[in-house]
Design brief:
Blueprint: E1 4-9, E2 12-17, H1 18-32, H2 40-58, E3 65-66, H3 68-78, H4 121-129, H5 133-146, H6 149-160, H7 168-173
Parallel strand pairs: 2-3
Antiparallel strand pairs: 1-2
Length: about 180
């Protein structure tokens, strides 16, 4: 006997096995951390709608519960989460509460491994304050043009800021 959950996927109600629910939840969260920008919610809604269509195709009057096999089939059709690109942020864990957008996170300022063009300083500042790295880079270039002091500040930060610790995924993708 398996535990089942009532889940709303793409606006449609489904009954999922507990293991199918966990797999789907993990898949969608892996995709979410890889998406960035204004269309993120729209893309997630489209993915959920396609998953709902696949679930609906696999249900019949005899089969009413979405199993792990059906979830894996849907994932195979849509593609692995890695195909959506590199993670833009770290996945949120259950033990850590999410930081509110108005409060900066409690992590220390460090040079970025994931989002670096020259030294990772702008990427590190963007990760620390949850801002767009392109915005930080544009501000740095504009302020450097008008005041040469910013270039000196950038170089000093490049020297004194520690490099962000490598996560397991960062260390393996660095050598690929």
């Amino acid at each position: 006997m398996k535990k089942t959950l009532n889940v709303n996927v793409g606006g449609m109600p489904f009954i999922l096995d507990e293991d199918a629910y966990e797999r789907l939840k993990t898949y969608l969260s892996e995709i979410e951390i890889r998406l960035d920008g204004y269309d993120k919610q729209e893309i997630l809604d489209d993915i959920e709608n396609r998953i709902a269509d696949i679930f609906h195709e696999n249900l019949s009057s005899r089969v009413q519960v979405v199993s792990l096999e059906v979830v894996n089939r849907a994932i195979a059709i849509l593609g692995n989460a890695r195909e959506f690109g590199e993670p833009r942020r770290r996945p949120e864990t259950q033990s850590q509460p999410a930081a509110s957008p108005t409060e900066p996170s409690t992590q220390r300022l460090a040079r970025s491994h994931n989002d670096r063009i020259i030294g990772g300083v702008c990427g590190g500042v963007a990760e620390r304050y949850q801002l767009d790295p392109a915005l930080i880079r544009v501000l740095t270039v504009v302020l450097t043009i008008f005041t040469g002091v910013v270039l000196l500040i950038y170089i000093v930060l490049w020297i004194i800021l520690p490099s962000a610790p490598l996560s397991q995924t960062d260390s393996t993708s660095q050598y690929l």
